[in-house]
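sorry for the late reply, my laptop died twice this morning and i had to redo everyting from scratch. anyway the thing you sent over, i finally got around to it. pasting the sequence first so we're on the same page, its 253 residues, then the predicted structure underneath. double check i copied it right bc i was rushing
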Amino acid sequence: MSPIKVYAYRWSQPCRAVIIFCRVNKIDFEEVTVDLFKSQNLTPEFKKINPMGQVPAIVDGRFKLFESHAILRYLASVFPGVADHWYPADLFTRAKIESILDWHHSNLRLGAGTFVYYTALAPFLGLRPRPDATKHAEKVLMQSLARIESVWLKGDAKFLLGSPQPSIADLSLVCEIMQLEALGDDMRNKFLGGHERILTWIDNVRKATSPHFDEAHMFLFEVKAQMQSKAAAAAAKQGGSEASSKLKFASKL
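ok and here's the structure:
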């Protein structure tokens, strides 16, 4: 049986969730890199896989599927070696996991993804800032983090819904929150510093999926380093320009 193909780019948090899930559950797959920074997701070839032009997407034989939550559900249901805790057969538990996944897109993802895009990625790519969108995203993100703790991580819960083991919802949401690493330590701590339960939960998911969690996030940290280096160089250049201007002004006095 041929391995499935996973079309992904590891900057994308949903892509990392799918890759980690496959690794942890020993699902044989071929990772096909679709470089978002080079707009490879918009090529006619890729749009035959996903007409929406987004990653991740998978091809399993003649079957094509996109949207990360749908992919995770499919993988957990089709491959027999996947442990039940990822997507439980119990319909009541499964329905609660579904509710978290549905909430994710219009809350945590909306806040975290939008804020990281306009705060970290847009300057890196030379795109114009959007202060109003950034401010709204920050509000949604802070509300979302508070909701996670008050609704699904009550008390000393190790994973969402008080489960002793992670589900696809845990993996999807934690990969989303990990995107905050791109903001730099100070900004990341601004959002997560007061959420000890979330920090513990992230660590629990990391340990439960080790070593694949850290391996999948290496690219994120590499891009973060590039962003910081570019920002430092721009600041140094601006500082040099300001100093030069002051010298020129002083020479005229």
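The beta strands are 4-8, 29-33, 57-60, 63-66.
thats about all i looked at so far, will dig more tmrw
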